[in-house]
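Title: Prediction job returns without error message
Component: structure pipeline
Severity: low
Priority: P3
Assignee: unassigned

Description:
Job completed but the reporter wants confirmation the result is attached to the right record. Sequence as submitted:
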Amino acid sequence: MLSAIISLKGHQHFVKEGDALTIDFLAGKPPAAEVLAVYRGDELLAISDQARKYQVKLAVEKKDKKGEKITVSTYKAKARYRRTKGFRARQTIVKVIKIEAAKINVKN
């Protein structure tokens, strides 16, 4: 089974076929993932330029999910001023369908 290191929306992920990734919110379909390295078990098959011959197919599993809640508290000493705000990032769950060698078009 192949596994790969991909770059997606500015973050690097180590993925295998069938894995689910939680990434920042996607408005449309998933962008093409840039393949940085490809492995078969512990053996390194391709890296950098050679890895571009491979492609990772992604599918959106769950479009809109809220992330973990972050709370921010502020206060001013001796003034009885206290405020608490919360934030939850929107996320998308993407499933890795297949890691395969890209088809190369040869012009005659």
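Comment from assignee: result matches the submitted record. The radius of gyration is 20 Å.
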